[in-house]
Structures are given as C-alpha cells and as structure tokens.
Known about the structure:
This protein is α/β, with parallel strands linked by helices. It has a single domain, classed as 3-Layer(aba) Sandwich (Rossmann fold). The chain has helices spanning 9-20, 33-46, 63-75, 98-126, 146-166, 190-198, 208-220; strands at 2-3, 25-29, 51-55, 80-83, 129-133, 171-177, 229-232. It has a seven-stranded parallel β-sheet with strand order 3-2-1-4-5-6-7, sandwiched between helices. The chain starts with a strand and ends in an 8-residue tail after the last strand.
Amino acid sequence: xxxxxxxxxxxxxxxxxxxxxxxxxxxxxxxxxxxxxxxxxxxxxxxxxxxxxxxxxxxxxxxxxxxxxxxxxxxxxxxxxxxxxxxxxxxxxxxxxxxxxxxxxxxxxxxxxxxxxxxxxxxxxxxxxxxxxxxxxxxxxxxxxxxxxxxxxxxxxxxxxxxxxxxxxxxxxxxxxxxxxxxxxxxxxxxxxxxxxxxxxxxxxxxxxxxxxxxxxxxxxxxxxxxxxxxxxxxxxxxx
Length: 240
C-alpha cells in the first residue's frame, strides 16, 4: 500500500491502521522526514521489512511516476493507493497567484491523478483499490478557500471518473472528512472551531482514526463498493 502524506496526522493514522490489517506500507512524505522515518521504524519493529519511506513533491512533473516505480522496487507489488497528501490554506479572491494554484491543485488533484495513472496497471493486476481523501468542501465550498475547494471538487470528480475508467478490476472510492485534525498553523481560531463543531450533528470533532478505519473498510471490506465518496464529518454536511 502506498499512502501519500503519511508521515503525520491523518496520513500516519491511515498507514498504521492498514499496517495493523497486515499490509506492507510505503509512507510518502514531502518534508516531514523525521516523522516518516520514526513511523516506519515503529512499524518495522512490529513486523520487519513491512514499512518503507519515500520522499517527493507530488506537484512536480515525474514525481508520481517515480514514487510508483520506487514502491515496486521495495515491495514487488502495489495493491492499494491512498491519495491523502494535501496542501490547505486560504486564497481569498484578489490574492490568488500562480504559485498558490500550482501548490493547491498540484497536491490535491494533479498528484492523485498522475499517481493513479502510474499505479493503474499494477492495481489492475492485483485487483486493488484506490482511496482518495477528498473533503466535504468539495461539494460545499469554504469561503476564502476557492482554489482549495475547487481542487478538492476536482478530486471528487476524479474519484468517480477513475472508478469508471479502471472498472472492473480496480475499485476507486473517496472519503470526505469534516472537522478532524485542525491545521497546525491556527487558521481556525478557537471560536471558529467551536462554531464548526456545534454545526455537526454529533456536536464533537472527529479523530484521525475515524478516517483510518473508513479507509481500511474501503480497502479490505467493501468489494462491491466503487465510485462512492463517504462523508466522515459527524453529520456536518447534512445541513451545511
């Protein structure tokens, strides 16, 4: 299993959960080398030679293809791809520039597309699966984040398109998280966080394990599910 953006936070929870289920995991990271190596070392203590790390910036041409090739060198096969890596920051109208477009679209849409394309022959051979980590704001844009919202909307459309393109051998699904693992840079102050949580039906924020368990379900326990996007958001999207 190749999991992008897996060194920390939700990605790390996904990698651990898939590993617990018996998978060999390749932990992709862009800049969090120390966290990635620490995670892989811990997993390898549990089961030797069951976790590897790979670095790359998914927005750069050729990187997705190189990641797939390096994964195959280490594991010999590729049965699952989790497109989790994501950049997230505001781009209010009037401030958008090419750098923001390239970063946000590159990590949230371009990278998943070219990774999926490179992985497709190998996933087909093993009748594998792809899980894309989308966002509830793919369907209901977040004010102040038009480029991010558009990129995630594209990923939602790509999820359904890939399900069509890669059927019947490969299943492709998505997960749309709600308020889980707030950004480290304090983009959402405490009062805004409280408002968002209050707007969920369950009146609490989620945990990375909620996304990880859903990923495990879609990878291993959903053989008749493809082309779907599951909202894991405490019911927030039910009445946004």
